[in-house]
Design a protein that fits this description.
Helix content: 55-70%
Order of helices and strands: HEEHHH
Strand order of the largest sheet: 1-2
Strand content: 5-15%
Number of helices: 4
Number of domains: 1
Largest sheet: 2 strands, antiparallel
Number of strands: 2
Shape: rod-shaped
Length: about 80
């Protein structure tokens, strides 16, 4: 989902960065619907990025226990070694 959100964001950004920022609509020119897709995809990406600790503030919230010998303790140590 993280990768799909980034891919959608990239495509939508390419559409709105070109000459298609405004498109013909019922009452004249209206904002490109790709702007909503871009915003929704950005929100989805940031939500999942936070779950994986990909933002600085979320990285600070990740806690790792360190044993006396400097390694991580428990199963996490086995996974991270």
């Amino acid at each position: 989902m993280l990768c799909e959100a980034l891919a959608r964001y990239t495509v939508a950004t390419a559409l709105v960065n070109g000459p298609a920022l405004l498109v013909p609509g019922g009452g004249g020119l209206v904002p490109n619907p790709a702007l909503k897709v871009q915003a929704d995809s950005e929100r989805t990406f940031l939500t999942f990025a936070a779950r994986f600790g990909l933002t600085p503030s979320d990285r600070q919230a990740i806690k790792a226990e360190v044993s006396a010998d400097g390694g991580t303790s428990g199963d996490a140590g086995r996974l991270l070694s």
